[in-house]
Amino acid sequence: MISKKEHLIKYFESGIKSLNNSKIGVEHEKFLFDLNTNKRVDYHTILKMFNALYEFGWKPILENENIIGLKKNGKSITLEPGNQIELSGDQLNSIHEACSESQDYLFEIKQVIKKLNIKIVSAGFDPISKISEIPNNPKKRYAIMTKDMPSGGSLSLDMMYRTCGTQLNLDYNSEEDFIKKFKVINSIVPISIALFANSSLVEKNNSGYLSYRSKVWQNTSRGGLPEIFFDNLNFEKYSDFVINFPLLFIQKDKEYISGKNYLFSDFMNGKIKELENRLPTENDLTTHLSTIFTENRLKKYIELRSMDSCGWDCLCAGPAFNTGILYGNLEEAFELISKWDKNKIINAYLEAPKKGFNTQLMGKDLFHWASKLMDISRKGLKKRDIIGKGGYNETNYLKHLEKIIENKTTNADHMIDKFSKKENLNDLYDK
To answer: Of the residues 147, 165, 357, 419, which has the maximum number of CB atoms within 10 A of its CB?
Structure first.
């Protein structure tokens, strides 16, 4: 049972991996649309898709009698609130392996969806649907989230039902290593927002934002970029943050109940009457950590969460970019950001969804810093020198971002340009 801060510290310490055993895990979310109606697919259609994926070796994940996802080996496909699907990848050794995993997944998904007349949209925000048009599903925690979260953030339901992102999970080799990686990755959030912006359209109109998804997350309950994240945040300080963070929901037997009246500290002190005052287990802690929706967060690994979902051509680019920095060239990155003022970073974070590369940070625009970080990442991937089956190292996956830097044009710019000229919904679907 978890009753002391030391229990949380030990939990985070248990995530420490040796340098040679550091893994890469990629998660990416996609919107699914019915081509006959241009509407988001319903749960009944999801079940058809899941059923068709069984032939590729996927097995069902059940919540009571309902199928809420699939699993195969070390990876899973999970169902988001508005029936977005998310691949949570296996723990892998290289970007080569992560990219191959995504390509295999793409192949399987494509075989299935073309039979069901479904198309994918790879964007950070649903460019077509009104929130009232999006069907839900029977996953029980989402009912509580839908009810409780709007009180803590005006765009919380948009986050749940109309956003898709790409997440990257990376390990830490010591507490000191975590401190440096976490400070770096939080400091470069504004650059990540600008570089991976891909959510400019809302309800078929230009939103005025390059990353409307990031705007939404800034106005989501339990989200944001806390000031404390720019300190030298060790396991103890992060534990304090977690302990004093409100609960979202609590699992009681096979049901979920609202946690809105409690902090995790109440749980640790046996003060939750609905649970007969029992103390939290490690599973309860894991659940709580997964409901902290900050731009980055700590579990038994670091989860990076600031990238819009993007097309299959750029899917490997984000993980490669961040892996090069955090695994390949951390010291140079840390030296760079150590000169930045946290208040200026936070201001850039708030402005980046709208201004993109034109956002100012420390007297330079984010395009300047994106170019600097690309160089750092490239050097880091070269240093790793992991050769794939094609005979090239991981720098190959930066090509998409190199084009963005070269042309000063993001995926969001392309989306605005392409759609404004034709206003054809087909242009929004993955090819």
So the answer is: 165
Contact 384, 328 (CB under 8 A): yes
Structure tokens of 50?
Answer: 């899941």
Distances (CA, A) of 363 to 78, 298, 341, 369, 373: 42, 31, 11, 11, 16
Q: Structure tokens of 315?
A: 């899917």
For the residues of 338-351, what is the DSSP string, one character each?
TTS-HHHHHHHHHH
b (16+ CB within 10 A) / e for 257-282: ebbbebbbebbbeeebeebeeeebee
| β-bridge partners, 307 | 166
Q: 5-245+292-428: which CATH number, 3.90.226.10, 3.20.20.140, 3.40.50.1010, 3.30.590.20?
A: 3.30.590.20
Mention every residue, 6+ apart, whose C-beta is less than 8 A from residue 9.
235, 236, 239
Q: Can you state the percent helix, strand and coil of the chain, rounding each to 5?
A: 50, 20, 30
CA distance 29 to 371: 27
Per-residue tens of pLDDT for the chain, all 431 residues: 999 999 999 999 999 999 999 999 999 999 999 999 999 999 999 999 999 999 999 999 999 999 999 999 999 999 999 999 999 999 999 999 999 999 999 999 999 999 999 999 999 999 999 999 999 999 999 999 999 999 999 999 999 999 999 999 999 999 999 999 999 999 999 999 999 999 999 999 999 999 999 999 999 999 999 999 999 999 999 999 999 999 999 998 889 999 999 999 999 999 999 999 999 999 999 999 999 999 999 999 999 999 999 988 789 999 999 999 999 999 999 999 999 999 999 999 999 999 999 999 999 999 999 999 999 999 999 999 999 999 999 999 999 999 999 999 999 999 998 887 777 888 888 87
Q: Which H helix or E strand runs over 59? A: strand 59-63
Tokens of 68: 């809420």
| Residue corresponding to tokens 């009457």 | 273
- State which H helix or E strand residue 255 sits in: strand 255-258
- CA 91 – CA 169 distance, rounded (Å): 9
